[in-house]
Amino acid sequence: MCANQLDLYNELRNLENAKVDLLHCDVMDGIFVHNLAMGRYVLEQIKYNTTIRLDIHLATIDILKYIEMYSYLNPEYISFHIEASKDVYKDIKKIKSKGIEASIAINPQTPLEKIKPYLLDIDMILVMTVNPGFAGQKFNYGVLEKLDELNECLSTFEKRPLIEVNGCINKDTVKELKYKSVDIYVLGTSALFNDNKKNYISKINEIKEI
Questions:
Q1: What is the mean pLDDT of residues 101-128?
Q2: What superfamily does domain 8-209 belong to in CATH?
Q3: What DSSP character marks residue 160?
Q4: What is the pLDDT of residues 137-153, one digit of tens each?
Q5: How far lies 129's CA from each of 3, 18, 49, 110, 170, in Å?
Q6: String of b and e for 33-62 (b: at least 16 CB within 10 Å)?
Q7: Which residues on adjacent β-strands are paired with residue 102?
């Protein structure tokens, strides 16, 4: 969503050269969040023009509808919001029935108690460090305590789900996160797509060095 939408083919080449592990793709319905983003035909072209795996983040109300709509792209992960789900187990089961890893997303203000009953059933937790919808927001430092609580919950797991963080992740905020057992960092406007120089290799390497 944060990349140059009129130059996605070359953006993909630059991201491949920078050896990114996943493409985090925000799907927004204009209802759960006040924005629209990344229709299925755009993601279809992305899928067929890169070898980078997709990580699809559904910021939508009708979760089952969008799982059906995007699962044919065979992404690595599909995340849905705990705040939007009417039947969390049903949504998890639907994703897994497609052979896709299931992830629950949680907003900064939502207590971790909401997702604790499902931690054994999912492959990843997407912890939002901003409210979903728009790029360029400020990092919510209160999420750091939530990550500590989450890691405490997962400390006894033999196979713990991955932790992904999303929202204003850059060379400054990643310093706050690097001791929180985070597995996946989503880089957007504040770290990667913030100028026209396309020096993604150096930007990503700087984050990895931290």
A1: 98
A2: Aldolase class I (3.20.20.70)
A3: P
A4: 899 999 999 999 999 99
A5: 20, 24, 30, 11, 12
A6: beeebbeeeebeebbeebebebbbbbbbbe
A7: 78
Confidence band for 162, pLDDT divided at 50, 70 and 90: very high
Beta strands 22-29 and 101-106: pairing type? unpaired
Token pair recorded at residue 158 = 């033999």
CA count, 13 A, side-chain hemisphere, 55:
21
Inter-residue contact 84 to 60 (CB < 8 Å): yes
C-alpha span between 155 and 185 (Å, rounded): 20
pTM for the model: 0.95
C-alpha distances in angstroms, 22 versus 29, 121, 152?
22, 22, 27
Separation of alpha carbons 63 and 17, rounded Å: 33
Residue with tokens 């009953």: 117
Contact 91, 122 (CB under 8 A): no
What tokens appear for 54 in the block?
């997709």
Question: Would you kindly state where each structural domain of the chain is located, as residue ranges?
Answer: 8-209
Q: Does residue 6 sit in helix, strand or coil?
A: coil
Which structure tokens are listed for 128?
């939002």
Instruction: Report CA-CA distances (Å) from 99 to 52, 75, 122, 123, 210.
Output: 18, 9, 13, 12, 34
Q: What gap in Å lies between CA 78 and CA 57, rounded to an integer?
A: 6
State the pLDDT at residue 185.
97
Q: Quick one: 115 exposed, middle or buried, by C-beta within 10 A (0-12, 13-18, 19+)?
A: buried
